[in-house]
Amino acid sequence: MLAYSCHQFDNLSAETPIVVFLHGLLGSGQDWQACIAHLKNLPIITLDLPAHGHSQAIEPEDFVTVCQQVEQTIISLVPTHHPVVMVGYSLGGRIAMYGIAKHLFNELNLIKVIIEGGNFGLEEEQARQARWINDCQWAERFENEPIERVLSDWYQQPVFSSLNHEQRQTLVAKRSDNLGASISRMLLATSLAKQPALLAELAKSNIETHYICGEKDNKFSQLAKQSGLSFSQVAGAGHNVHHEHPQAFAREILHQFKLASASNQQQQESPWLKQ
């Protein structure tokens, strides 16, 4: 079972959905603390994905195994049939989308998934091959070099261009607790090169998917706009919205939570809607 933390479970009711947060590569459940501070009335579970945080000793194998570990951990904590809203950032978002598209979360009463900056998958074989070469190079560096040095270069990638120097240094210091060899294995096990294109299957799912991206995150804003999914942008934010603007991100989560709760309540009161 994955490491986890539960928040605000004291007054849990049968009707109130539980929000489950999945962090990105190099992160942990602690990443969501600033956001959770603005969600004081919601029951929340944060997970540490394999090879991260207090789950560092758990070996990542592939997308299927990671999705199974996520589901099994949630099942152990959440009452049967209790509604769940899942929030995933970057890698966590890709895991959430994979689990939905491949029907790996069937034991959960998942009523909505919220994706922050997650890639739907690469359509072209050439792009997948190029991504695999790139991920292998990073994985080798994480395996063999001091992690502080690798992280300094990692956060220079174009996707993090909205970060200033101070923000980059903060992230390098924060992420240096990771074990380079563990991150290397997770990077290869869940590489975007190994992820099929998921958008078509997500569109067919009866689980609503909402996408959140930063206004300055041009790449993922374009992906969101072209996806056909409901999406929202956070002004002034880049790729890591919940880190850069936790209060604004929390407002988006709360809004989507209320929509999901109302929809779920309506279905409970009108069983014919499920037919």
Using the coordinates shown, work out and report the CATH topology: Rossmann fold
What proportion of the residues form beta strands (DSSP E)? 5-15%
Radius of gyration: 18 Å
The topology string of helices and strands comes to EEHEHEHEHHHHHEHEHH
Mass-distribution shape: globular
Major sheet, described briefly? 7 strands, mixed
Helix content: 40-55%
Give the N-terminus to C-terminus distance in angstroms: 35 Å
Determine the number of helices (DSSP H or I, runs of at least 4 residues): 11
Protein described:
Strand 4, helix 3 and strand 5 (109-116) form a beta-alpha-beta unit. The protein has a single domain, classed as 3-Layer(aba) Sandwich (Rossmann fold), CATH 3.40.50. Mean pLDDT is 93; it is low at 271-275. With 275 residues, the chain is of the alpha/beta class. Helix content is 45%, strand content 15%.
Secondary-structure topology with pairs:
Elements: E1 4-7, E2 18-22, H1 33-36, E3 44-47, H2 63-77, E4 83-89, H3 91-101, E5 109-116, H4 125-144, H5 147-154, H6 165-175, H7 180-189, H8 199-204, E6 208-214, H9 218-227, E7 230-234, H10 241-244, H11 246-269
Helix pairs in contact: 2-3, 4-7
